[in-house]
Amino acid sequence: xxxxxDQPQPENINFALLKRLMHRSVIRNTFRKPExxxxxxxxxxxxxxxxxxxxxxxxxxxxxxxVKEGSPVQVLIAVPKKNLRHAVTRNxxxxxxxxxxxxxxxxxxxxxxxxxxxxxxxxxxxxxxxVSQSETLTAINELMDxxxxxxxxxxx
Length: 156
Fold this sequence. Notes:
alpha+beta, 47% helix
């Protein structure tokens, strides 16, 4: 088969560059170490000076500070042993909360990144029984939306 002159010729494509560009534009739904609060001083100041929001079985503590290197939002997830006695149910609840946060974190991160602020967040489960994934997702979404609204009100 011969190539005719009137057919368009394929251009040389740099696939490595294309892959990097596509990788940057894709929103990644991950929950990595820089997004978690690990420093004890940070945790203490969050519980001492933080403000609180409540939605159903969840309580959200947040503390806004000036810009830090790394992620604009850092999260701590807590399920008290007093509320859920068995480790299996506590770990399941933590997994559900992590998943709900992971799916709804982008609007929160965008808000704080645009404002040039940093926010530490603690999500605390207050219920006595493990709840479903859909209930967890709706409650966490509601808390995130309320946090964004309070941030926008305070920044004005």
